Amino acid sequence: MISVKNVSLAYGKRVLFDEVNINFTKGNCYGVIGANGAGKSTFLKILSGEIEPNKGSVEITPGERLAILKQNQFQFDNDTVLNTVLMGHEKLWKIQHQKDAIYSNPDATEDDYMKAGELEAEFGEMGGYESESNAGSLLSSLGIGADMHYTLMGDMPSNMKVRVLLAQALFGNPDILLLDEPTNGLDIETIGWLENFLAEYENVVLVVSHDRHFLDAICTHVADVDRHKIKTFSGNYSFWYESSQLMARQLADKNKKTEDKRQALLDFIARFSANASKSKQATSRKKALDKLNVEEIEPSNRRYPGIIFQPLREVGNQILNVEGLKKEVDGKVLFDKLNFSINKGEKIAFLSQNPSAITYFFDIINEKATADSGKYEWGTTITKAYLPIENSEFFEEGLTLMEWLRQYVPPHITDVDEPFLRGFLGKMLFAGDEIMKKTNVLSGGEKVRCMVSRMMLQNPNVIVLDQPTNHLDLESIQAFNESCQNFPGIVLLTSHDHTFMETVANRIIELTPNGIIDRLMTFDEYLADERVKTLRTEMYK
After folding, report:
1. How many Cβ atoms from other residues are within 10 Å of residue 294's Cβ?
2. Do 398 and 521 lie in a common domain?
3. Is residue 462 predicted with pLDDT exceeding 80?
4. Rounded to two decimals, what is the model's pTM?
């Protein structure tokens, strides 16, 4: 168990935590959620001892080992991949070097060899003789084959380094596991493996993640960082979100009787508890929900942006026709033989083993890049709005938010005054004097929110989204997701966010160097389809 007692932390006038008291117990996985800047990552660093709070303490049950996913990719550049993982169990690593030093010392005494014998016994009890095999197995599960186990970390690409550091944190079955954005750099298959690993993990796990599907798959509890406090709630992220929204509606409904409200909440808990039995964290989550009292449910204090795309006109019969598109970069074919048309009512998720393929395709159909061959044609009724993965070119000038947004007002809007622009910025949570903020000092999340304001101004009937959840907090992701679900027009998107892809798309198109795989099905159906799996293997040869 890990206990937080009266922890407070402030940087000048900025208070992150004020008298936080909370316990994290064995057998539970806690999803740590909160708005950007609330202090989620900082809290994990307090737990690990990397940051000292101004007041209070963190206590760990004696004898228990804590591991944290390290963020410094360059820390182990002079070590091999395998040794980097083994270093995750500091005590085991130290014992191994102590006994090896004795054996390699030509002047070692009998007492030294006695000490080595004691170390050997301790090493064996800690599973030391299986440690290299276990570390190698972890690496292989995370997509790092045996041919890379003895490669220096400095020679590994950054996306592979992230996986090694994840293996390091998981190695040796730590009693307390702290993971900050562990799915970064992982593909769908590897995320699935990690979900299963953590769902079966019997110790304490705390996870910071913006991936709602991942949180839902692994969490028994949510630890909500809000207003300088942290509260825990039973259930996964979806339960926390939906129950808090339900409670907010209940409080707003002054005409509904108290008993009716209570029964509605009880019915909601019962439904969610039944669904929990089908999840990976079935047993512990269902037990937690079965014991949950209505009084424990609280409305969220979060502010959600108002993302509303309102098409000026409905799409016509011709939307987008693509014929024979091909793109090659640095001698490598990203995609070829792209042939498809888009129909009314379709929301399409694009996939590729090479994410650059989708970015180039989106740039091509938005006149930001050119194809090597082939053509595409938009229908005459189409009004597009594009959210590119890279947006720095839009923010090079130091304009105020008001000035910045004004330059993107389309010709069909003639009455453009300050309240009009404030309305669009306000929907994206820019209020008061924030609209006078300069665009060249915005954070990554603020830039994305500005780009979404720009998109809403266009009144599009087609929206194109390249990694729309990048830099956004869970509140903005949730609002964006629901907006795309409710949007009456066409959506073309790609995202690392599993829930976004699953809940929005009704058609999947995968771009490969040898053509496309095109299916009218949901994202989860596509991933589970055995025929698709076989075809994918063939298409990437």
Report:
1. 15
2. yes
3. yes
4. 0.84
